[in-house]
């Protein structure tokens, strides 16, 4: 099971450590979060102690309504179950009893600059992304006019050179050579570069180039949802390709189907333009317009029309 340390959570969400710094090496493996409102009311039967505990305005207000004795007893019970950490939202003051128990049990008590709703959303998204199952794909991931395109194919086909040309046209690099992918939720596959390779592009004959240095910060983004896989293939006269583009292809990553386009390439074909066209065609399909289906319908209408004229001619 994947896990990350609380210190990584602190860094990712820019949280302030109020107390319990000795426990920042604790690990969390559950991306779900819990708000201990019922526990403050004395009901610990369903205490989800393997989750980070979020204390927002409602929980903070209710806690201050409790007697000093109840505050102490229920806070102690929260800590005794050994949760990964407690995070207080922006407008909630951290009670001294939490600070005392944080030091005693070495469980971090943290403070956020987010209000409760935003904190819950941002922290859940962060944990979901960091704890999701991951795999690696060989290829180049680009953001082409909002479409995340994973360019794949055998080595030597010029994928990085295609990426360079697309960057020159104003599109955005996400990852070159190795793309780390994870499923944020079913239907949403996210790709990003390994930490060491971020912002870098390898061009044979030139070497490693930093796209941010060459083209500016707009040329790179840290991650992108993968919507389309474009597989580059060497042209083969014996191979058959869908000339109308009406047969939908998919590649499965985890349990999500990603649209796929196979593009045969030769020295005479501008591969970057073909990848760009595939991305724009995908976007038009997403908006409800399918060029291949439209042409196929026109062709069928024309055939049907000619058949009808031929039948009428025979009747005469």
What keyword list fits this structure?
316 residues, alpha/beta, Udp-n-acetylmuramoylalanyl-d-glutamate--2,6- Diaminopimelate Ligase, Chain: A, domain 1, Rossmann fold, 2 domains, 8-stranded mixed sheet
Structural account:
The model has no long low-confidence stretch (mean pLDDT 89). The protein has helices at residues 6-13, 37-40, 57-65, 68-80, 96-105, 116-131, 159-168, 211-215, 271-286, 291-315, and strands at residues 4-5, 16-19, 27-28, 33-34, 52-55, 86-88, 109-111, 134-144, 147-153, 172-185, 188-192, 200-203, 207-210, 223-225, 228-234, 249-253, 256-265. The chain has an 8-stranded mixed β-sheet. A 5-stranded mixed β-sheet has the order 2-7-6-5-4. It has a two-stranded antiparallel ribbon with strand order 1-3. The longest helix is centred in the C-terminal third of the chain and has 25 residues, at 291-315. 37% of the residues lie in helices and 28% in strands. It folds into 2 domains: 4-130, HprK N-terminal domain-like (Udp-n-acetylmuramoylalanyl-d-glutamate--2,6- Diaminopimelate Ligase, Chain: A, domain 1, 3-Layer(aba) Sandwich); 133-280, Rossmann fold (3-Layer(aba) Sandwich). With 316 residues, the chain is of the alpha/beta class.
Topology:
Layout: E1 4-5, H1 6-13, E2 16-19, E3 27-28, E4 33-34, H2 37-40, E5 52-55, H3 57-65, H4 68-80, E6 86-88, H5 96-105, E7 109-111, H6 116-131, E8 134-144, E9 147-153, H7 159-168, E10 172-185, E11 188-192, E12 200-203, E13 207-210, H8 211-215, E14 223-225, E15 228-234, E16 249-253, E17 256-265, H9 271-286, H10 291-315
Helix pairs in contact: 4-5, 7-9
């Amino acid at each position: 099971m994947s896990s990350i340390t609380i210190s990584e959570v602190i860094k990712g969400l820019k949280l302030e450590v109020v107390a319990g710094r000795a426990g920042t090496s604790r690990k969390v493996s559950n991306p779900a979060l819990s708000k201990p409102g019922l526990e403050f009311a004395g009901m610990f039967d369903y205490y989800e102690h393997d989750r980070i505990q979020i204390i927002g305005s409602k929980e903070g207000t209710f806690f201050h309504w409790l007697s000093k004795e109840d505050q102490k007893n229920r806070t102690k019970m929260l800590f005794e179950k050994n949760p990964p950490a407690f995070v207080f939202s922006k407008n909630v003051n951290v009670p001294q009893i939490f600070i005392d128990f944080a030091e005693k049990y070495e469980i971090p008590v943290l403070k956020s600059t987010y209000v409760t709703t935003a904190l819950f959303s941002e922290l859940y998204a962060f944990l979901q992304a960091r704890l999701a199952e991951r795999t690696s794909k060989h290829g180049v991931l680009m953001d082409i006019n909002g479409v995340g395109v994973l360019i794949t194919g055998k080595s030597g086909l010029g994928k990085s050179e295609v990426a360079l040309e697309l960057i020159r046209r104003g599109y955005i690099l996400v990852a070159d050579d190795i793309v780390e992918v994870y499923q944020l939720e079913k239907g949403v596959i996210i790709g990003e570069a390994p930490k060491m390779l971020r912002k870098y592009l390898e061009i044979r004959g030139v070497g490693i180039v930093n796209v941010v240095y060459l083209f500016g910060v707009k040329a790179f983004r840290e991650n992108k949802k993968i919507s389309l896989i474009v597989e580059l293939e060497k042209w083969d006269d014996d191979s058959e390709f869908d000339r109308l583009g009406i047969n939908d292809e998919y590649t499965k990553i985890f349990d999500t189907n990603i649209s796929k386009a196979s593009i045969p390439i030769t020295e005479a074909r501008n591969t970057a333009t073909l990848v760009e066209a595939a991305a724009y065609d995908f976007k038009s399909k997403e908006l409800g317009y399918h060029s291949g289906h439209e042409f196929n319908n026109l062709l069928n209408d024309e055939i049907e029309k000619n058949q009808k004229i031929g039948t009428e001619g025979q009747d005469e």
